[in-house]
Amino acid sequence: MADSLYDTLGVKKDASAGEIKKAYRKLARQYHPDTNQGDKAAEERFKQVQTAYDVLSDDEKRKAYDRFGSTNGRGAPGPGGVNVDFGDFDWAGNLGDIFGGRFGDIFGGGTRGRGRTQPVRGADVETQVRLSFEDSLHGTEVKVPVELTAACSQCGGTGAEPGTAPVICPECNGRGVISESQGLFALSQPCPRCRGNGTVIEKPCSKCHGSGRERRRRTFNVKIKPGVKDGTKIRLKGKGEAGQHGGPSGDLIVVTRVESSPTYERRGDDLIVQVSVSFPTAALGGKVDVPTPEGTVSLKIPAGSEDGKLLRIKGRGAPKLSGSGKGDVLARVRIQVPKRMNKKERELLEELQKAVG
User: What pLDDT, on the 0 to 100 scale, is given for residue 325?
Assistant: First the structure.
């Protein structure tokens, strides 16, 4: 038997937490009962390694051990005759540290256990709804059908045939876990009879076969606020999949898919529209009619406007989802060059060409 807990793990007294953990994992794998079945010496060695790591991996316990030779002066003697407190020792938790939490899940966290199955929140459900460009600007209300898992309509979610009810599991007496003594340790694991629920169903529901759940088609009326964009997500709290073991339902997430517009290009809350302007108007200035979602607006074209110039009409764009105002309409000047001209038009252009040439 080693003289100290440090000797048990084969590390120096000034070893870092990482070195202690590395040594512990190596020895725990080497002496684990599953790989040394029937070897009492290996089992005893495994317990010593567990005890040493429980103390040295805890800063407070390690300080007490370094100072007094024990963590609190009480408890069972450990390696080398040193008193070590087992009060807070979590065997399953330490095994989970070795094997990535697998044993912690299996054994339910050592002697403290997890008890009955915990409530589980239902999953979120995402669906899409298609909107016209006009509806995205003005807002609307749509019907959204979805397939959801809900409580069984026949048994009300109990899983038991109507007229009956789940009963307390006789194997674990409703605890959801069973414990098995292993010397200094008590190992807990989910009850195999009730699978951790604490209750068993003697007569399962004929419709859901005991699951307490069924697929059901539901339709929700969803209000679409003015100004939604393509890809906007609308969350309906509690309208998703039903929870399990008394847990809350998930959410329904509605994603808007907005059709493109033949007139406007959307840029944030602004709307871009192409406006045809004749060459004389672009050169001399004038006015043109510009379509907006709220009707046609007369727009002044400054003299000397170039092709592609953006002219802003404030407050006539898409509504802002924040509810504070609207974006703008941006009129992009597109100068039209005539493909056919009469004699007089040609003569005038030729005179202009001579004047500027």
Answer: 93
Same domain membership, residue 132 and residue 226: yes
User: Tens digits of per-residue pLDDT, 284-316?
Assistant: 999 999 999 999 999 999 999 999 999 999 999
- Provide the residue count of the chain: 357
Give all strands (DSSP E) within 229-294, no chain letters.
233-236, 252-258, 264-267, 270-278, 286-292
Instruction: Tell me if 23 is assigned to some domain.
Output: yes
Distance in angstroms (rounded) separating the CA atoms of residues 270 and 292 = 11
Report d(CA 268, CA 288) in Å as an integer: 25
Do 25 and 50 form a contact (C-beta atoms < 8 A)? no
- Name the H helices within 57-100: 59-68, 91-98
Could you give the C-alpha distances from 336 to 39, 155, 313, 333, in angstroms and in order? 95, 72, 21, 9
- Pairing of β 286-292 and β 295-301: antiparallel
CATH number at residue 82: 1.10.287.110
Q: CA-CA distance, 172 to 288, in Å (whole number)?
A: 84
**Residue 81 structural domain:** 5-89
Q: How many CB atoms lie within 10 A of CB 134?
A: 12
- How far apart are the C-alpha atoms of 16 and 121, rounded to whole Å? 40
For the record, the structure tokens of 33 come out as 């009962």
Q: Return the CATH number at 309.
A: 2.60.260.20
Are 231 and 250 found together in one domain?
yes
Tokens of 10: 């084969």
185 assigned to some structural domain: no
Q: Is the pTM of this model over 0.90?
A: no
- The two three-digit tokens of residue 122, written as one number: 């239902």
> What's the CA gap between 123 and 240, in Å, rounded?
6
Low-confidence ranges of the chain (pLDDT < 70): 1-3, 70-117, 181-186
- What pLDDT does 354 receive? 86
Separation CA 284–CA 302 (nearest Å): 8
